[in-house]
Write a structure and sequence with these properties.
This protein has 585 residues and is mainly alpha-helical. It is 62% helix and 4% strand. It is built from 24 helices and 5 strands. The longest helix is centred in the N-terminal third of the chain and has 41 residues. It is elongated and about 100 Å long.
Length: 585
């Protein structure tokens, strides 16, 4: 059994500290290392961009335009080819959008992440994004930061409950360092990584990691924000309804993004192309789009700033919103490495900018420029796509440094997130988990119970009685065998009902009926049943719905043939055992 962080640190005689202070110390260390990992990641990506994209463009004369632009697809294809050795060596760990796997490990599997994630999540996205693939750095860097936190926790033998906190602290630090936005880092960890399930201790650890990571990043890069955002002004109170409408549009577009993303991913998954060749095909397709709309390539940060400054003309800015959705879906759906965070910022800026052009043209006296709406679009679209409104709101606030923007982005982000949830239950990060049957929205308890099957917990030590069994004999069986829920069967041993002690109690002391009334007459005919392949979450819903203690388990092919009984107390015991196992691992 691993030692806890308290016992490990307490070996040093001068440092007798409790668990919470130890967690804070580790969070401090994690914040420093997460920021260092962010610096390493960004350096790798810029190196690949300079060598492959910039160097390749010069070598092939792509920058000269004209006929040379047809060579543009070769750049992302080269990056995809460089991914092949890594994807062969580490299958399933390099290609595609892997953030949902990260969420599953953190929230369901105890938060144990392999150290090699730091290398793989650096080199894969660096090759994809640096060569022109349409993806973001924030998902991978959050996983890298989380891996830092996990391995610090493993080194000090932190328990499963605290491991989750350290992983979240690492992700918070990495995101905070990336955006120079400590509050956004905290909100990202709590809303997206921890799915809103946190306590005061978690909050303190995450805040410290995020703050320290931001300080390290500012020392290295300076205090410049992720984007240079024009000064925002709310032109008039009459603008608020326009931001509400923007929120509605953002919600619909967020669902379009999610559905398009997974639709294209499914098409690539079902394709008969060799797995290693799929990212190359995807890179070619994105490169072809890039010939006509080069802004959709890589993370697109430079063009986000153009949208904020109102430098992109109206027809183009509309096209960029839709084609960035398509390009990102192709890049990651085909197996390119990266995240969806930066594309969401890009798409949001283009949606907001497009809307802003229209309303400002129609109502110039009472509306701000298109750049103001593009700014609000960034935060609100991110919120709607990830179902994390606080992350979107605070990220935008920290990027602008302007308190006036809070009210418009609050309206747009909350409405956009609400519309997205109404139209589609899952965020872009949880679709794959739902497909796997993991309902990650409802917390660890249900996630744990969804993984355990009825067949693993049910008892085969049960008795049945025939329909004509007398009450006297039935009571004796209940008392002697200590069975208080008994299936009633016919001559073919198929269940016709179930009888419980509650059914017997009204006539238990009526001696004159004990030899007259039969089990078949007292039994409940409308019986709730389970099959061996049902999970314990389903079982607990049935227990609560009918307020009963046992449920018959029947053959899947013969729904009246009883093969076991599931007791509520056994389900609870199985859950506690599973949680304890994870806490001690």
């Amino acid at each position: 059994m691993k030692k806890t962080v308290v016992s490990t640190i307490d070996k040093i005689p001068r440092f007798r500290i409790g668990e919470h202070p130890a967690l804070i110390i580790l969070s401090f260390i994690i914040g420093i290392l997460a920021s260092a990992a962010n610096i390493m990641f960004r350096s790798a990506m810029h190196f690949v961009h300079d060598v492959v994209f910039v160097g390749g463009s010069e070598l092939l004369h792509i920058n000269e335009g004209g006929i040379y632009k047809v060579f543009l697809p070769l750049l992302p294809m080269f990056g995809a080819l460089l991914l092949i050795p890594f994807s062969l060596k580490f299958p399933g760990e390099v290609n595609g959008y892997g953030f949902y796997k990260f969420l599953e490990i953190v929230n369901v599997k105890g938060g144990i992440l392999k150290l090699r994630n730091i290398f793989l999540k650096t080199i894969g996205p660096a090759l994809t994004i640096g060569s022109g693939g349409s993806a973001g750095v924030e998902g991978p860097i959050a996983i890298i930061g989380g891996t830092v936190g996990s391995n610090i926790g493993q080194t000090f033998g932190v328990s499963g409950a605290r491991m989750k906190v350290l992983v979240a602290a690492g992700s918070a630090g990495a995101i905070a360092a990336t955006f120079n936005a400590p509050i956004a880092g905290v909100m990202f960890a709590m809303e997206i990584v921890l799915l809103g399930d946190y306590e005061l201790t978690s909050f303190a650890a995450i805040v410290i990691s995020s703050g320290i990571a931001t300080i390290v990043s500012r020392v290295y890069y300076g205090e410049n924000p992720a984007f240079i955002v024009p000064q925002y002004d709310l032109k008039s109170i009459y603008e608020i309804p326009f931001y509400i409408v923007l929120g509605l549009i953002v919600g619909v577009m967020a669902v379009l993004y999610i559905r398009t993303f997974y639709s294209i991913k499914d098409k690539f998954d079902s394709s008969k192309l060799p797995e290693q060749f799929k990212p190359v095909v995807g890179a070619f397709m994105v490169g072809v789009i890039g010939i006509f709309l080069p802004q959709i390539m890589s993370d697109g940060y430079r063009f986000i700033e153009d949208a904020l400054d109102g430098k992109i003309i109206f027809p183009i800015i509309v096209l960029l919103a839709f084609f960035k959705i398509l390009a990102t879906s192709i890049t990651l759906g085909s197996g390119g490495a990266g995240g969806v965070f930066a594309p969401a910022l890009f798409i949001g800026a283009m949606i907001g900018g497009s809307f802003g052009y229209v309303v400002h043209h129609l109502f110039p006296e009472i509306t701000a420029s298109s750049g103001a709406y593009a700014t609000v679009g960034i935060g609100s679209f991110l919120a709607a796509t990830t179902h994390a409104p606080l992350t979107g709101i605070f990220l935008l606030f920290e990027m602008t440094g302007n308190y006036k923007i809070i009210v418009p982005v609050m309206f747009a982000a909350i409405i956009g997130t609400s519309i997205a949830k109404i139209l589609y239950q899952d965020s872009i990060d949880t679709v794959e988990l739902t497909r796997k049957g993991i309902n990650i929205h409802v917390g660890r308890e249900i996630s744990v119970m969804s993984r355990i099957k009825v067949k693993d917990v049910m008892t085969k030590d049960f008795v049945t009685v025939k329909e004509n069994t007398t009450l006297r004999k039935l009571v004796n069986i209940m008392i002697n065998r200590e069975k208080f829920y008994i299936p009633v069967v016919d001559d073919s041993k198929l269940m016709v009902g179930i009888i419980s002690i509650q059914d017997v109690r009204p006539v238990l002391f009526e001696e004159y009926v004990k030899d007259v009334v039969t089990a078949g007459e007292l039994a409940t005919e409308n019986v709730i049943t389970l099959t061996p392949d049902d999970d314990l979450n389903t079982a607990m819903e049935y227990f609560s719905m009918k307020d009963i203690e046992e449920i018959p388990v029947v053959d899947k092919e013969k729904p009246r043939k009883v093969i076991g009984m599931l007791r509520r107390m056994d389900v609870i015991a199985a859950y506690k055992k599973e949680v304890l196992k994870k806490e001690m691992s």
